[in-house]
Amino acid sequence: MENFAAILRDRVMTMRGVVRHEFDRDNAKVFDVGSSTDGVLFLDAGLVKVLRDGPDGRQVLLHLVRPGELFGDFPAGGVRSTHAQAILPSVVYEIPRMDFKEFCDSTPEVSRLYADSLGKRLVELDHKVEMLTLYDVEARVMDSLAELAEFLAEGPQKPAQVPLTQSELAKFIGATRETTSTTLNVLERRGLVRLGRGRMFVPSTEALRSAQLSSRAKSAN
């Protein structure tokens, strides 16, 4: 059975009206607050972060979009309350919302796969809420870094470069910049991460995940 991303690439990306966008630099704007939601976005390559601005001027990193995922698909109609930036050079396809709806309506299998993708997004949201409410900063830092490293590395024992600043990671896990930095320095001394300018390096995704599971168990007790 074809997966959802494969069907979109093979049968939707070639539809009339679909627009291809390339973002060839870090932090390039994909969409802004107040932009129209008439188009559903599909990330074909790269990595995109979705953020919301708080009333006090702080930003919250809501979601990291990976290749093969739809984003910017809610709410239907109106304007967006979030904004998105490309973390890596990225390719995004913009699908007219009505065309996407008609395609889903005429293809029950696609509707089911789309519902499955929304279910997965809810599971990820539940996991984030769980981490924010039940676990300490160290467990949250390692959980987020391990998840990203596993996506970016070529294998479980391979190194990975995570293209987030310490400030961005702090926003993603709901912690202060200072506490996140202190935690990262501890992890660096343990050899689990190396800190660079605007980047973090994970020497072994397997070692980080193992340490993360131990920290999570300790944090829960």
Protein architecture, described:
The protein is of the alpha+beta class and 221 residues long. The chain has 2 domains: 4-131, Sandwich (Jelly Rolls); 135-220, Winged helix-like DNA-binding domain superfamily/Winged helix DNA-binding domain (Arc Repressor Mutant, subunit A). Helices cover 45% and strands 26% of the residues. It is built from 7 helices and 9 strands, in the order αββββββαααβααββα. It has helices spanning 4-12, 97-106, 108-134, 137-152, 166-173, 177-189, 205-220, and strands spanning 19-23, 28-31, 39-53, 59-65, 70-71, 83-96, 160-162, 194-196, 199-202. Strands 1, 2, 3, 4, 5 and 6 form a 6-stranded antiparallel sheet that branches. Strands 7-9-8 form a 3-stranded antiparallel sheet, with helices on one face. A hairpin with a 2-residue loop joins β8 and β9 (199-202). α2 (97-106) packs across α3 (108-134). The model has no long low-confidence stretch (mean pLDDT 87).
How is this structure best summarized?
By secondary structure, the chain is of the alpha+beta class. It has two domains: 4-131, Jelly Rolls; 135-220, Arc Repressor Mutant, subunit A.
